[in-house]
Amino acid sequence: MAIEFSEEIPSLRTTMENIIAVVQPDKLREQIAELNEKAAAPDLWDDPSAAQAVTSALSHRQSELDRITQMSERIDDLEAMVDMAAEDPDESADILAEAEGDLDKLRKDLGDLEIRTLLDGEYDERNAVITIRSGAGGVDAADFAEILLRMYLRWAERHGYPTKVMDTSYAEEAGLKSATFEVQAPYAYGTLSVEAGTHRLVRISPFDNQGRRQTSFAAVEVIPLIETTDHIEIPESELKVDVFRSSGPGGQSVNTTDSAVRMTHIPTGIVVSMQDEKSQIQNRAAALRVLQSRLLVLRHEEEQAKKKELAGDVKASWGDQMRSYVLQPYQMVKDLRTEFESGNPQSVFDGDIDGFINAGIRWRKNEQKAAQD
Questions:
Q1: Averaged pLDDT of the chain
Q2: Quick one: which of 28, 69, 120, 160 has the fewest CB in 10 Å?
Q3: What post-translational changes are documented for it (predicted)?
Q4: For the purposes of burial, counting CB atoms within 10 Å of the CB of 48, is it exposed (0-12), middle (13-18) or buried (19 or more)?
């Protein structure tokens, strides 16, 4: 046992040093100090949206610094526990058993923290806006879209990340035609962007009275939420704005005023609907922000496509059909890019998707490195 710890603890410290080199705690402390100054300004709440951005950024930075500090302390505590066992032979068995449990938790938590160092994309640290749309498969596809919405909301809940459902379009019989929601967390976009693509469900359809097996599809789109510094300006002449009443399941009206907004960007055909806010003005502002986010991503994709064209890279982009959820004739969820799989679909649908996300982030980084070589 002692030999294992003598090898494991230096390995943990090496990984921790690599993480610290990327995260740069000193830089985090400088950012926290600057944000604390802004948060202390007497006129901070004169602009509520700016104030919320400051306090949110401060909370995120402080949380990240605390994670780094606590992880280093946990490695120190583990080493002290092993030393204590060596000095007290009578209690060594119990102490080492506890240390082994701590080591297992440390390995997992350090692996999760290491994933963060792989998120170095231009927009990775932003909040994420996720849109789920039902695809081929009729009512089963609409039901699958609702299952995926619940899965991601449960994942966010497990991590304590605030979410906000911004728009839902219900299907007539069951499920959703589409849903858009925001995840407010550090690196939410970088983390969840590997979930973008086509998801496939195979099961005995609960909507088929003959009990036949049905394959259905849903598309997941992930974009970073824009910030005021992004300067994505859209001329009014390029926008078509329609207002309508918010609707609930079965098409029933849940709002007696025309407060919901559908915004169309005429040059690209991109459409954004928003009905979560109480007023038409608020929904219009929210829709414009999401539209700007989509145009930001589109601009980025066009730039990347141009670079690939100049480099002679004609490989198709990753992220089309990327994961299968099979409930019949066997139980398996498998990512088709990373080969990561789980034999417990219900746990996955309950939000246990960290393994898939982490494998996806590592896979993406390896793909990027291979493309650069």
A1: 85
A2: 160
A3: Methylated by PrmC. Methylation increases the termination efficiency of RF2.
A4: exposed
